Amino acid sequence: MRYSTIILVAILMHSCNSQKHTGQQSSSEEITFNAAFVLSPRAQQFLQELYLERGNQNNDTFIPSENLANKYSLRKLSGEYHVIGFLHTAPGFDVAVLDELGITTNSGSEDILTVSIPVQRMEGFLETKGIKYFEITRKARTNKN
After folding, report:
1. What is the DSSP-derived secondary structure letter of residue 36?
2. Could you tell me the pTM of the whole model?
3. Residue 11, domain member (yes or no)
């Protein structure tokens, strides 16, 4: 009994260590991305799907598929597709940094902002310092009676 318990603990420890998020998708193509802050699981999934779909296309001319746009509620504003989300920022965060990237912000509370990010500017956004966490919004569901 004691031997089987030790083996079970060893297996569990190994599986926990090998399940860490690396920012890579386990498919035929590996995708890596680095962010200066924590990404929600939905944001991670969006980035992986965005990078897979974009492939080697020019970032400035890339147009997301209808499927991707619908799945993540992308909005077309001034000819660009935007992803909408929430930021949790560190004290003293300067919103002007986001303005320089072409990211639209709306005030929330002191440390929570809603943002509209052009998909072509995601790489610059991911490098932004002073953000703690990013979450992509979801469409509100209606109760159909």
Report:
1. S
2. 0.74
3. no
